[in-house]
Each structure stands twice: as structure tokens, then as C-alpha cells.
Amino acid sequence: QVQLVESGGGMVQAGGSLRLSCAPSPRTFSSGAMAWFRQAPAKAREFVAAISHLHGTNSNSYYADSVKGRFTISRDNAKTMLYLQMNSLKPEDTAVYYCAARVKAWGQFSEEYEYDYWGQGTQVTVSS
User: Fold this and answer.
1) pLDDT digits (tens, 9 = 90+) for 35-59
2) What is the rounded distance in angstroms from the CA atom of residue 52 to the CA atom of residue 104?
3) Closest by alpha carbon to 37, among 9, 1, 64?
């Protein structure tokens, strides 16, 4: 069974930065795509960013409009660790952030049902 463990969440002031990490277990797990979703209090979980794993070191990344230009999704060359660099954070970015992964590289990247595995989430709180 594949497990995903997020880390890097915390509390930061508006305008600050945080970097989230997601570590799959076992480390030999090879995903076709990975993503970040988030869920704010009393709101539905929403797509944040995704990265697909193409041949070699090639990949494509996708972002929600609300984070485009502020957040950057990336992975290590071994295609295991997933990261989310979050800059210029806003209070509305406050949420629990979830890492997700799937075996296939194709398909919709912003839909929850497309992902096979989920982490437990890490809290990000942005104060004004």
C-alpha cells in the first residue's frame, strides 16, 4: 500500500513563504502524476497544482488560477519527492494541504477522483 506523508506546513504572515514536501512510501513508488489539493474550513477540497511525469526528466505542471504566479510545484529527479513552494501567501490560502498521487500520467489533473493515493494533510495558516 502506498502512503504519502506531507510536511512543511505551519503559520506565516501574509506575504510570507512556505515550502511543502510530500514523501511517498515506499520510495520506489513510481507515479504518473502528483498533485496538491487544499481544503479550507467549511469549504470543499479544491485543486491547487499538479505535475505529470513524462519520459526522462520531462514534466508538465498545472495550476489553479488562484495560485498561478505565486506557487510552484516541483519534484526531484528520481520522481519521488513532491514539493510546493508557496510565495506571497494570502490569508485566503489558509487550508489543510493534501498531497495526491496516481499511477497514470494522463487524464484530468484537477479532479480528485483521478488520484489513487492521498496523504493525511498538513495545515497552512496565513495571518493578516
Assistant:
1) 999 999 999 999 999 998 776 667 8
2) 9
3) 64
